[in-house]
Amino acid sequence: MNAKWICPAITPFHQDGSIDFESAGRFYDYLIANEIDGVLIGGSLGEFFGQTLQQREEIARFAVRHITGRMKVIIGTANMIAEQIAPLSNTCLEAGADAVMIVPPFYFSFGDEEMYRFYTRMAEEIHGPVYIYNFPDRTGYTISPSVVRRLAGEKENIIGIKDTIAGMDHTRELIKAVKPIRPDFEIYSGFDDNFAHNVLSGGNGSICGISNVAPKLCSDWVKAVNSEDVGQIALLQQKINRCMDIYAIGAPFVPYVKEAVRQLGIIECAKCTFPMPDLDESNREKVHAFLVREGLLPA
Length: 299
What we know:
Blueprint: E1 4-8, H1 21-33, E2 38-41, H2 53-67, E3 72-76, H3 85-95, E4 99-102, H4 112-125, E5 130-134, H5 136-139, H6 145-154, E6 158-163, H7 169-178, E7 186-189, H8 195-200, E8 205-207, H9 215-226, H10 230-243, H11 254-263, H12 281-293
Parallel strand pairs: 1-2, 1-8, 2-3, 3-4, 4-5, 5-6, 6-7, 7-8
Helix pairs in contact: 1-2, 2-3, 4-6, 6-7, 9-10, 11-12
Protein backbone atom coordinates (compact mmCIF):
# COMPACT_ATOMS: atom_id res chain seq x y z
CA MET A 1 0.00 0.00 0.00
CA ASN A 2 1.02 3.59 -0.52
CA ALA A 3 -1.20 5.57 1.86
CA LYS A 4 -0.47 9.21 2.65
CA TRP A 5 -1.50 11.76 5.26
CA ILE A 6 -1.63 15.43 4.30
CA CYS A 7 -2.07 18.07 6.98
CA PRO A 8 -4.61 20.88 6.37
CA ALA A 9 -2.38 23.37 8.12
CA ILE A 10 -3.40 26.12 10.48
CA THR A 11 -2.25 29.64 9.64
CA PRO A 12 -0.49 31.29 12.61
CA PHE A 13 -1.29 34.94 13.23
CA HIS A 14 0.07 37.61 15.54
CA GLN A 15 -2.38 39.15 17.98
CA ASP A 16 -2.90 42.05 15.56
CA GLY A 17 -4.04 39.67 12.81
CA SER A 18 -0.90 39.76 10.69
CA ILE A 19 0.62 36.44 9.60
CA ASP A 20 3.25 35.05 11.97
CA PHE A 21 5.74 33.68 9.46
CA GLU A 22 8.24 32.65 12.13
CA SER A 23 5.66 30.43 13.82
CA ALA A 24 4.52 29.12 10.43
CA GLY A 25 8.04 28.03 9.55
CA ARG A 26 8.45 26.34 12.92
CA PHE A 27 5.13 24.59 12.42
CA TYR A 28 6.04 23.28 8.96
CA ASP A 29 9.33 21.98 10.34
CA TYR A 30 7.36 20.23 13.09
CA LEU A 31 5.23 18.44 10.51
CA ILE A 32 8.27 17.44 8.46
CA ALA A 33 10.15 16.16 11.54
CA ASN A 34 7.13 13.99 12.33
CA GLU A 35 7.04 12.58 8.77
CA ILE A 36 3.77 14.01 7.51
CA ASP A 37 3.58 13.48 3.73
CA GLY A 38 2.31 16.87 2.73
CA VAL A 39 0.57 20.07 3.70
CA LEU A 40 -2.53 21.89 2.49
CA ILE A 41 -2.08 25.64 2.88
CA GLY A 42 -5.24 27.75 2.90
CA GLY A 43 -7.79 25.04 3.59
CA SER A 44 -10.59 25.26 6.14
CA LEU A 45 -8.27 25.07 9.16
CA GLY A 46 -6.02 27.55 7.34
CA GLU A 47 -8.89 30.07 7.50
CA PHE A 48 -8.75 31.04 3.82
CA PHE A 49 -12.25 32.49 4.19
CA GLY A 50 -11.02 35.22 6.54
CA GLN A 51 -7.90 36.30 4.66
CA THR A 52 -7.27 38.81 1.91
CA LEU A 53 -5.95 37.61 -1.44
CA GLN A 54 -2.63 39.24 -0.56
CA GLN A 55 -2.38 37.29 2.70
CA ARG A 56 -3.27 34.05 0.95
CA GLU A 57 -0.60 34.60 -1.67
CA GLU A 58 1.98 35.59 0.97
CA ILE A 59 1.48 32.47 3.10
CA ALA A 60 1.49 30.27 -0.02
CA ARG A 61 4.77 31.73 -1.26
CA PHE A 62 6.31 31.48 2.20
CA ALA A 63 5.28 27.83 2.62
CA VAL A 64 6.74 26.82 -0.75
CA ARG A 65 9.96 28.70 -0.06
CA HIS A 66 10.36 27.38 3.49
CA ILE A 67 9.46 23.75 2.80
CA THR A 68 11.70 23.56 -0.29
CA GLY A 69 10.50 20.18 -1.47
CA ARG A 70 10.72 18.43 1.90
CA MET A 71 7.02 17.52 1.71
CA LYS A 72 4.23 18.02 -0.81
CA VAL A 73 2.64 21.48 -0.83
CA ILE A 74 -0.97 21.96 -1.96
CA ILE A 75 -2.51 25.43 -1.88
CA GLY A 76 -6.21 26.06 -1.35
CA THR A 77 -7.25 28.68 -3.89
CA ALA A 78 -11.04 28.69 -3.59
CA ASN A 79 -12.94 31.92 -4.01
CA MET A 80 -16.57 32.92 -4.38
CA ILE A 81 -15.51 34.92 -7.45
CA ALA A 82 -14.56 32.35 -10.08
CA GLU A 83 -12.47 34.83 -12.06
CA GLN A 84 -10.06 35.17 -9.12
CA ILE A 85 -9.35 31.46 -8.72
CA ALA A 86 -7.17 30.78 -11.76
CA PRO A 87 -4.86 33.82 -11.30
CA LEU A 88 -4.17 32.89 -7.66
CA SER A 89 -3.77 29.23 -8.58
CA ASN A 90 -1.31 29.95 -11.37
CA THR A 91 0.67 32.32 -9.14
CA CYS A 92 1.00 29.58 -6.51
CA LEU A 93 1.96 26.95 -9.07
CA GLU A 94 4.54 29.24 -10.65
CA ALA A 95 5.98 29.85 -7.16
CA GLY A 96 6.56 26.10 -6.81
CA ALA A 97 3.41 24.62 -5.28
CA ASP A 98 2.79 20.99 -6.24
CA ALA A 99 -0.95 21.47 -6.78
CA VAL A 100 -3.96 23.59 -5.87
CA MET A 101 -7.23 22.55 -4.23
CA ILE A 102 -10.58 24.21 -4.94
CA VAL A 103 -13.82 23.97 -2.98
CA PRO A 104 -16.74 25.01 -5.20
CA PRO A 105 -18.81 28.16 -4.61
CA PHE A 106 -21.09 28.15 -1.59
CA TYR A 107 -24.28 30.04 -0.57
CA PHE A 108 -26.40 28.62 -3.43
CA SER A 109 -26.65 24.88 -4.11
CA PHE A 110 -25.41 23.72 -7.50
CA GLY A 111 -26.18 20.58 -9.47
CA ASP A 112 -24.12 18.15 -11.50
CA GLU A 113 -23.98 20.22 -14.67
CA GLU A 114 -22.86 23.35 -12.82
CA MET A 115 -20.13 21.38 -11.05
CA TYR A 116 -18.97 19.86 -14.31
CA ARG A 117 -18.79 23.29 -15.96
CA PHE A 118 -17.09 24.85 -12.92
CA TYR A 119 -14.25 22.33 -12.64
CA THR A 120 -13.86 22.04 -16.41
CA ARG A 121 -13.23 25.78 -16.57
CA MET A 122 -10.83 25.65 -13.63
CA ALA A 123 -8.87 22.79 -15.22
CA GLU A 124 -8.60 24.68 -18.50
CA GLU A 125 -7.51 27.97 -16.95
CA ILE A 126 -5.12 26.58 -14.34
CA HIS A 127 -1.70 25.53 -15.62
CA GLY A 128 -1.01 22.63 -13.27
CA PRO A 129 -2.50 19.93 -11.03
CA VAL A 130 -5.90 20.54 -9.43
CA TYR A 131 -7.65 18.76 -6.56
CA ILE A 132 -11.42 18.93 -6.11
CA TYR A 133 -12.60 19.65 -2.57
CA ASN A 134 -16.02 18.22 -1.68
CA PHE A 135 -17.31 19.60 1.64
CA PRO A 136 -21.13 19.53 1.66
CA ASP A 137 -21.38 20.68 5.29
CA ARG A 138 -19.88 23.99 4.15
CA THR A 139 -21.16 24.34 0.58
CA GLY A 140 -24.66 22.94 1.14
CA TYR A 141 -24.41 20.35 -1.64
CA THR A 142 -22.23 17.43 -2.69
CA ILE A 143 -20.22 16.71 -5.84
CA SER A 144 -21.48 13.44 -7.24
CA PRO A 145 -19.23 10.46 -8.13
CA SER A 146 -20.56 10.59 -11.69
CA VAL A 147 -19.34 14.18 -12.12
CA VAL A 148 -15.95 13.36 -10.61
CA ARG A 149 -15.64 10.34 -12.94
CA ARG A 150 -16.48 12.51 -15.94
CA LEU A 151 -13.94 15.17 -14.95
CA ALA A 152 -11.25 12.59 -14.18
CA GLY A 153 -11.78 11.01 -17.59
CA GLU A 154 -11.56 14.29 -19.48
CA LYS A 155 -9.09 16.49 -17.59
CA GLU A 156 -5.68 15.01 -16.84
CA ASN A 157 -4.69 17.90 -14.59
CA ILE A 158 -7.59 17.16 -12.22
CA ILE A 159 -5.61 14.68 -10.16
CA GLY A 160 -7.65 13.98 -7.03
CA ILE A 161 -10.29 14.89 -4.50
CA LYS A 162 -10.64 15.57 -0.80
CA ASP A 163 -13.99 14.14 0.25
CA THR A 164 -14.99 15.66 3.59
CA ILE A 165 -18.01 13.58 4.55
CA ALA A 166 -18.33 11.86 7.93
CA GLY A 167 -19.25 8.40 6.62
CA MET A 168 -17.48 6.41 3.94
CA ASP A 169 -20.49 5.84 1.68
CA HIS A 170 -19.81 8.72 -0.70
CA THR A 171 -16.05 8.19 -0.69
CA ARG A 172 -16.55 4.50 -1.38
CA GLU A 173 -18.69 5.34 -4.42
CA LEU A 174 -16.03 7.77 -5.64
CA ILE A 175 -13.42 5.02 -5.46
CA LYS A 176 -15.68 2.59 -7.33
CA ALA A 177 -16.54 5.16 -10.00
CA VAL A 178 -13.15 6.76 -10.66
CA LYS A 179 -10.34 4.32 -9.90
CA PRO A 180 -11.20 1.88 -12.73
CA ILE A 181 -10.67 4.63 -15.34
CA ARG A 182 -7.99 6.65 -13.48
CA PRO A 183 -5.98 4.43 -11.10
CA ASP A 184 -3.66 7.40 -10.46
CA PHE A 185 -6.56 9.63 -9.31
CA GLU A 186 -6.03 10.39 -5.60
CA ILE A 187 -9.03 10.05 -3.29
CA TYR A 188 -8.59 11.35 0.25
CA SER A 189 -10.98 11.36 3.19
CA GLY A 190 -11.54 14.57 5.12
CA PHE A 191 -12.39 12.91 8.44
CA ASP A 192 -9.42 11.54 10.38
CA ASP A 193 -11.09 8.36 11.61
CA ASN A 194 -11.85 7.26 8.03
CA PHE A 195 -8.17 6.92 7.08
CA ALA A 196 -7.82 3.14 7.33
CA HIS A 197 -11.25 2.50 5.82
CA ASN A 198 -10.34 4.80 2.93
CA VAL A 199 -7.10 2.98 2.14
CA LEU A 200 -8.60 -0.49 2.58
CA SER A 201 -11.33 0.55 0.14
CA GLY A 202 -8.76 1.54 -2.48
CA GLY A 203 -8.32 5.23 -1.65
CA ASN A 204 -5.15 7.16 -0.89
CA GLY A 205 -5.46 8.28 2.74
CA SER A 206 -6.52 11.44 4.54
CA ILE A 207 -6.23 15.21 4.49
CA CYS A 208 -7.23 15.74 8.10
CA GLY A 209 -6.77 18.16 10.97
CA ILE A 210 -5.56 16.02 13.87
CA SER A 211 -2.14 16.04 12.20
CA ASN A 212 -1.80 19.69 13.27
CA VAL A 213 -1.75 18.50 16.89
CA ALA A 214 -0.52 14.89 16.76
CA PRO A 215 1.45 14.47 13.52
CA LYS A 216 3.49 11.51 14.74
CA LEU A 217 0.33 9.60 15.61
CA CYS A 218 -0.87 10.16 12.05
CA SER A 219 2.42 9.25 10.36
CA ASP A 220 2.69 6.13 12.55
CA TRP A 221 -0.76 5.11 11.34
CA VAL A 222 0.38 5.60 7.73
CA LYS A 223 3.37 3.34 8.38
CA ALA A 224 1.17 0.70 10.02
CA VAL A 225 -1.22 0.67 7.06
CA ASN A 226 1.56 0.61 4.48
CA SER A 227 3.28 -2.29 6.28
CA GLU A 228 -0.08 -4.07 6.76
CA ASP A 229 0.44 -4.35 10.53
CA VAL A 230 -3.13 -5.16 11.54
CA GLY A 231 -2.55 -4.95 15.29
CA GLN A 232 -0.93 -1.53 15.05
CA ILE A 233 -3.61 -0.31 12.63
CA ALA A 234 -6.29 -1.22 15.17
CA LEU A 235 -4.41 0.34 18.09
CA LEU A 236 -3.89 3.62 16.23
CA GLN A 237 -7.49 3.64 14.98
CA GLN A 238 -8.58 3.64 18.61
CA LYS A 239 -6.16 6.44 19.49
CA ILE A 240 -7.37 8.55 16.57
CA ASN A 241 -10.97 7.87 17.57
CA ARG A 242 -10.20 9.40 20.98
CA CYS A 243 -8.39 12.32 19.41
CA MET A 244 -11.51 13.18 17.43
CA ASP A 245 -12.72 14.67 20.72
CA ILE A 246 -10.71 17.82 19.98
CA TYR A 247 -13.34 18.79 17.40
CA ALA A 248 -16.06 18.56 20.06
CA ILE A 249 -14.48 20.74 22.76
CA GLY A 250 -16.17 23.78 21.24
CA ALA A 251 -17.51 25.20 18.01
CA PRO A 252 -16.16 26.36 15.69
CA PHE A 253 -13.24 24.02 16.34
CA VAL A 254 -10.49 26.06 14.62
CA PRO A 255 -9.50 28.10 17.73
CA TYR A 256 -9.28 24.89 19.80
CA VAL A 257 -6.92 23.23 17.33
CA LYS A 258 -4.75 26.35 17.19
CA GLU A 259 -4.73 26.62 20.98
CA ALA A 260 -3.56 23.00 21.19
CA VAL A 261 -0.67 23.76 18.81
CA ARG A 262 0.18 26.84 20.89
CA GLN A 263 0.23 24.82 24.10
CA LEU A 264 2.58 22.35 22.44
CA GLY A 265 5.00 25.27 22.00
CA ILE A 266 4.96 25.28 18.20
CA ILE A 267 3.26 28.63 17.56
CA GLU A 268 3.27 31.80 19.64
CA CYS A 269 -0.38 32.76 19.46
CA ALA A 270 -3.75 31.08 18.85
CA LYS A 271 -5.31 34.17 17.26
CA CYS A 272 -7.87 33.43 14.54
CA THR A 273 -9.58 35.48 11.85
CA PHE A 274 -12.64 37.52 12.80
CA PRO A 275 -15.26 36.54 13.93
CA MET A 276 -13.67 33.34 15.29
CA PRO A 277 -13.80 33.50 19.10
CA ASP A 278 -10.85 34.05 21.41
CA LEU A 279 -10.81 31.26 23.98
CA ASP A 280 -11.22 32.06 27.66
CA GLU A 281 -9.27 30.36 30.42
CA SER A 282 -11.91 27.69 30.90
CA ASN A 283 -11.68 26.61 27.27
CA ARG A 284 -7.89 26.74 27.30
CA GLU A 285 -7.99 24.39 30.29
CA LYS A 286 -10.21 21.99 28.32
CA VAL A 287 -7.65 21.92 25.53
CA HIS A 288 -4.88 21.33 28.05
CA ALA A 289 -6.80 18.45 29.62
CA PHE A 290 -7.23 16.87 26.18
CA LEU A 291 -3.49 17.13 25.45
CA VAL A 292 -2.61 15.60 28.83
CA ARG A 293 -5.17 12.80 28.43
CA GLU A 294 -3.71 11.83 25.06
CA GLY A 295 -0.11 11.94 26.29
CA LEU A 296 0.80 14.93 24.14
CA LEU A 297 1.69 17.03 27.21
CA PRO A 298 2.94 15.86 30.62
CA ALA A 299 0.40 15.78 33.43
